[in-house]
Amino acid sequence: MSRELFTFHGGVHPPEHKSESSGRPLHPPLLPRELVIPLRQHLGNPAKPIVEVGQRVLKGQMIGEADGYISTAVHASSSGVVTAVEMRPVPHVSRLPDLCVVIETDGQDEWIERTPLDPHAMSLADLRMHVRDLGIAGLGGAVFPSAVKLDPGAHHCPVLIINGGECEPWITCDDLLMRTRADEIMDGVAIMRHLLGSLQILVGIEENKPEAIAAMQAAAARLDFAVEVVPVPTIYPGGGAKQLIYTLTGKEVPSGKLSTDIGIQVFNVGTAQALARAVRHGEPLISRLVTVTGHVLRPQNYEVLIGTPMRVLIAEAGERDGATGVVMGGPMMGVPLASADVAVVKATNCVLVRSAELFPPLPRELPCIRCTRCADACPAALQPQELFRFAKAGDFGRAQEYHLFDCIECGCCNYVCPSHIPLVDYYRYAKSEIWAREKEKRAADLARERHEFRQFRLEREKKEKAEKLAAKTQAARAQAASAQPAESPATAPSEADARKALIAAALARAQAKKAETAPRNTEHLTPEQQRTIDEIEARRAKIRELAHQPLETEEKK
Amino acid sequence: MLAAIGVMVLLAVAIGLVLGWSAVRFKVEGNPLAEKVDAILPQTQCGQCGYPGCRPYADAIASGEADINRCVPGGEDVVKKLADLLGVDPKPLDGALGEPKPKSVAFIDEQACIGCTLCIQACPVDAIVGAAKQMHTVIAKECTGCELCVAPCPVNCISMVPIEEDLPHWKWKHPVVMMKTVRTETRA
Amino acid sequence: MPAPFITGRASVTQVMGWVLIALLPGIAVYVWLFGPGILITLGMATVTALAAEAAMLKARGYPVKPFLVDLSAVVTAWLLALSLPSLAPWWLIVTGTLFAIVVAKHLYGGLGQNVFNPAMVGYAVLIVSFPVQMTQWAGPLALTGESLTLAQSAAAIFGGLPKGTLDAVTMATPLDTLRTGLLQQHTVDEVMVQPIFGQFGGTGFEWLAVAFLAGGLLMWARRIIGWQVPLAFLAGVWLTAGFLHFYDAGRFGAPWFHLFAPSVMLGAFFIATDPVSGSTTPRGRLIFGFGAGLLTIVIRTWGGFPDGVAFAILLMNVCVPLIDQYTQPPIYGATRTGKDTQK
Ligand code: SF4
Ligand code: SF4
Ligand code: SF4
Ligand code: SF4
Known about the structure:
The complex is a heterotrimer of chains A (557), B (188) and C (343). With 188 residues, chain B is mostly helical. Among the domains of chain B are: 33-97, Orthogonal Bundle (3-methyladenine DNA Glycosylase II, Chain A, domain 3), CATH 1.10.15; 101-164, Alpha-Beta Plaits (2-Layer Sandwich). Chain B has helices at 2-25, 32-40, 54-62, 75-86, 118-122, 182-187; strands at residues 104-108, 128-129, 137-138, 158-162. Chain B has a two-stranded antiparallel ribbon. A two-stranded antiparallel sheet of chain B has the order 2-3. Mean pLDDT of chain B is 77; it is low at 182-188. Chain C has 343 residues and is an all-alpha fold. In chain C, helix 2 runs parallel beside helix 5 and helix 4 packs across helix 5 (90-106). Chain C has helices at residues 12-34, 37-60, 64-68, 72-83, 90-106, 118-129, 141-144, 150-157, 163-169, 174-183, 188-192, 205-221, 228-247, 255-260, 263-271, 282-302, 309-326. The structure holds iron/sulfur cluster (4 copies). One iron/sulfur cluster (SF4) binds next to loops of chain B.
């Protein structure tokens, strides 16, 4: 029964703080008055809204459809009326708003008609389409659309790993899920097995969850196929996909590749359960388990409707004085939120209320002393101190050479650093800067291409015109030779005159129209605006001059 | 004596081989400098540098005619990269050419547009679509924000709208370093 | 501020504090062997270092307190003090410390930025500039028979001791004795019979070395230092010395003697392990340590200075960027990529 486990490099042992919330039973869903459901809850393209303001929607009704392959649908979590489709604050580090569907619930919680699916009666591709349209995305935190991950494609996926690691401190929702719904999880595993054709199924659960391990082992024993439930050592980030793969199989996901490239696919236990509900009951992903913990009176796990404002949960768990902020997720990788007014999304596994006692402000940052504690703790076996040096100096090329993009942003380096440098911040900054620059570069390349094409087009037009003119003059000469009066020179100016007249007429029309609408006239310009316009004018004149010079000389030749 | 000569000859041959190999290995084609410079320029094609576009300016830099601090949209960043590339000291932007502005795209007030096509003729990257007497529109994705279309418009219906940061374009900021005291930060 | 929101207990103060604690056994043995004079030296170096550090921080616009309590300046001061001769005059101590803190540390950018080990820079400057004063070692108690009192030491350090008395209590160190002996065409065996050479590393000095070794092991047990640098350093010393000794036992000292001349233990566990100026990769640390050990023997044997540890470490400091660059360890996802994935 016992299998050989492998120990990955690094890792840390932060205080677990799991007992606070794991002792209490699951709290049934609350029905808030207003649900705010973001359309971008998964990686890939955001869902496209398909409801209108004022429309009544039922619980489970699709309100946003998947847009493209890497996308999933979004559903109403309860029945009610759509009151807005607008930009609202969402739980994201940027604290920027995003497009959300706002539903005023009617309290009836009326389900839409649900049709269970028979996975064996349909093609795998169809089944995946259904999974996508039922909004299933990875519930472990990355929220990658599950339908995509369930498509083995060209890769053969003999090994399926179910991740019950839950290594982040404070969070216990997966633990509770495994303790109470092990059979449903296993049912989801059976569907995954069907879709992926996996031969070997491993469930990795950290040793600090003995009840969950027992429940899952019991559920596994009831299956008609083999599932191995493996207790793994408790160490952060042992529940990271790459780390769990290594612990269980001794294989490393090659840098820059996906786990499927080595024949392994990993799903979170919550995803398996959501998949089972979706397939067996036709229920879309409209709720999930969320740990509400930290600085609250009654830390507990909640079944939460997607779109429920976090404030509702915190109020239910008992708000306390002295809260200093709310984090979505755990203390190592969580997202600090601007306020508790944002809604729970598919990625929300934990609502962690901070206070000065539980999360004292980090000590002052000192310079790096190159002690390499960070390197010793890095589960990706990177050299965080070097990455930090390059990222800070803006030497992103070197940072990439030192494998910046293999950093999983786990925060271990940060945790052990005696100088308390916010190392991960620097990595995130460097990564996002590199992406932005690549984007800029692509935009510049596009602009260059279009500009070059335009140059080429102008050149060609000019040539064509010149040829035409030459042909015309030749014809005129031929006509002159036959002693006919030449008319052609007169036509050109008259054509131009006609065009000018047309423009003038249009101008008059537009000006009349403009006089009615908001005047945006040159008369009302501030001197500043006037100056910029003059500048642009002057620049243009100069450019015209410069641009025409070489061409003219060419023509003269 | 003979041995010494032999060693010298061998050494010379070896160095020659290395040199020859590196010449092949690191062969450069065409006029790579202008191309490298062009790759750094933002391709806004705005002409603020005094040249009719980014490529002509790149050629001018490569041939040593133009200074590296003339690209306003590129800002200090481009100056720094050019300085790196050319192995010269970076210098501040030429202030006479204008101040860097937040990146914007052109926006045509479609109510007022008379379809004169003048803006199309001005746009260096063909980012405006429309035909004579038809309403015109800017393809925001392709607009470089060069402002060249603003002035020619006879009805002043083109305005520049700064690009607002939204979720997909959001960037992490450089972490705040609080190592020094405020006093020197303001001084530095 | 984004995640993580928690941090471990480690701090620079704690790291440096452990280094200081690990030096205590060595200091105790020092006092027992050479009298309490070292305490004066330590105290003076500490005060000078802290004052210089505070002044430099202020001048560079850094907040003084959080940087002073990191204790890095104290570590530098103690390491320098322990490397100096026990009866070095006060101005020597102050000059060395000032140089270490002001030039070697702060002019290179302060904590974490210095390329060279500050204490060793201070030592090197002193030994180049004041070679004579740098030999004022009190003879070990066991040989001189009398211990210098605190007052006597103070007098020696502050220049209150007449020349004759000073000469009476100072003695050449074993390394010096060996060097001079060899220069006078004696063989190692002839030199080594002198009483200054104790059981295995020089009378008294050998116990000092053992105390430093104990402190080093303590730091290793507390994970303040890794095993790579000290082990490689000692191996470098032992193998090089052993090789030379094997080649010609008459001209080259025995490896054990070299190992337990105390500066090697101090260097291996406390100085070469300085994280800032050392290598940061596991393999790099092996190279760094071994190189420093090898150079120590080379300089001891052929160099013009009584001891080679300082110069060896400084030389290796220069090589660190190069070593680091070529010894990057494989990352996750790059080690077993080629392995067959089917099983
Ligand atoms: S743990 Fe901190 S101080 Fe130590 S090397 Fe890493 S970044 Fe530098
Ligand atoms: S955040 Fe990145 S660099 Fe730091 S320990 Fe984790 S993987 Fe390594
Ligand atoms: S100033 Fe405008 S045209 Fe000139 S290089 Fe910069 S972006 Fe290109
Ligand atoms: S639309 Fe206007 S601002 Fe945009 S690229 Fe074209 S000319 Fe420049």
